[in-house]
Amino acid sequence: MGRHGENIRRRKNDGRWEGRYKVYHEEKDGYVYRSVYGHTYAEVREKLTRKQLAAQRFLGSGPVGLDSTALFSQAASEWLGLIREKCKYSTYVKYDTVYRTHLAGLLGDCPLIDVSDTRLQAEIPDNLSENTQKSIYSVANQILRYVNNQYRISVPVLERLSSRTEKKSIEILSVAEQAKLFHCIYTNMDKYKIAISLSLHLGLRLGEICALKWTDLDNENLIMTINHTVQRITAADLEDEDARTNLLESDPKSDCSKRIIPITCEILHMLDQIHDDQPYIFGGTKPLEPRTMQYQFKRVLREAAISERNFHILRHTFATNCVEKGIDVKSLSEILGHSDVRITLNRYVHPTMDAKRLQLQQLVHFYSQILKAE
């Protein structure tokens, strides 16, 4: 059966793969179909891509500009310029960094007609992480889709071969570690310990904690509004070439991350201990530096005799605790700022072995009741 939208199918008579493409026929004064063949789907897909791009220059259906012989770097430059105006600056920085760090060297001098799965797969170093490879393919495909839509050049998106690596489980603090951490927090409490406690109570991200303002609190209605985040942008992506990095305050990572969270009187009382006339709760006159918060978190862990962890473990721990205490997943998903409850279940919520044992024990109790009822 053919792959949808690609005109590729497997022939029944000889088992080979066939791909069809359209070319202009001068004698017939119209377009006709031609075929390419191969022993594998990938082989035919690559051949078909080259034929389609070679024929594209004669179709004359797209706007004047890039064609199939243009370099990948030209398309990337246009695309980066476009998204810089359309998306968050931090998102542009991420894409630009991926392109300059990886794709510029791998595909920059490659004509669009020669871009293929096998070429990129062969060029990517083996020591790159799974997430980095995913980012490389994601940015490359967004550039290719741009030239498809803007210039009607038929460049199929790239398909990355799965490495089938085992998914790394998300770590949380154990009950014993949480007990030690809370004991440390309530001993000689300071603003950093309060920030740690706030993340354990509400599941806030590091950038959201650092960007919190007193105006985000509604003491009367007991709610907190999350509508900003802060992160440090690297020097290569700044307008000011003299600066090494820049602290950027912006909207949260997605629309769903903008949210209103219910808070308790205990949280308000805790925050009242550090209340002042400065705009930012933890930073004073400006957002708190995330690196400072990370450093202070590791200091508190050392003080509590807990091994070093990343700040985000607090968010994982909060989500897991909520599920194990019976909070419905839909409510939890909105508190965390997720766009889909499946993200909450699959990425952040990981029941402990004790929780699983308790659930199975309840099933045993249920079966016992059935037996007694007979």
Any overview of this molecule?
The model is unreliable at 1-5, 57-64 and 236-242 (pLDDT under 50). 48% of the residues lie in helices and 11% in strands. The protein is built from 14 helices and 8 strands. It has helices at 41-56, 72-86, 89-107, 117-123, 130-151, 175-185, 191-202, 206-210, 265-272, 290-303, 313-324, 329-336, 341-348, 353-373; strands at residues 8-10, 17-25, 30-38, 217-218, 223-226, 229-234, 245-250, 259-262. With 374 residues, it is mainly alpha-helical. The strands form 3 sheets. A 3-stranded antiparallel β-sheet has the order 1-2-3, covered by helices on one side. A 3-stranded antiparallel β-sheet has the order 4-5-8, with no helix packed on it. Strands 6-7 form a two-stranded antiparallel sheet. The longest helix is centred in the middle third of the chain and has 22 residues, at 130-151. The N and C termini lie far apart (55 Å). A hairpin with a 4-residue loop joins β2 (17-25) and β3 (30-38). The protein folds into 3 domains: 1-61, no CATH class; 62-164, Tyrosine recombinase, N-terminal domain (DNA polymerase, domain 1); 181-355, Intergrase catalytic core (hpI Integrase, Chain A).
